[in-house]
Design goal:
With 184 residues, this protein is mainly alpha-helical. The chain contains ten helices and two strands. The protein has helices at residues 13-21, 30-43, 48-53, 55-61, 67-71, 75-82, 91-111, 114-119, 142-154, 161-170; strands at residues 127-128, 174-175. It starts with 12 loop residues before the first helix and ends in a 9-residue tail after the last strand.
Amino acid sequence: MEKTRCAWVGKDQIYIDYHDNEWGKPVYDDKILFEFLVLESFQAGLSWITILKKRENFRKAFANFDVEKVANFTEDDVEKLVLDEGIIRHRGKINAAINNAKLFIELQKEHESFSNFIWKYVNHQPIVNNWNSIKEVPATTEISDQIAKDLKKIGFKFFGSTTIYAHMQATGMVNDHTKDCFCK
């Protein structure tokens, strides 16, 4: 019998795997949180499936999402990334990833981990919503607005409220699986 999934999943296996194994599951590991920050920032203006299909290329290009290494990328590294056809070759987003890595490290030092910083916005507990339909799922919330505002004040780039809300969904800070989904 076919499992019922959230309506956005479709038939593409990469989406099915992502939905079933990652989306909405709480992530407290800083390395994975950094990976999703990079991926979500590159997704801005594009479809998520585009990013998922290039995820392995992003891992290679961004030092397996080692935040210390990314924070130390040089202008030569940026030039190589701009030429890397396996990723989104957007100079602004590449520079933002390096900038954000440096700020991520600062937040780790200040809060003992990035996880402590980001999860405080939801009192360190996932928000579990009970949507009947994917049409009910918001693109932003007051919490994502606040996180985006705070990150912008710190200096993060490519992190508006919509991107932050997608990050919250991806890392399980919010569970937006619809009521009929087997992952609920």
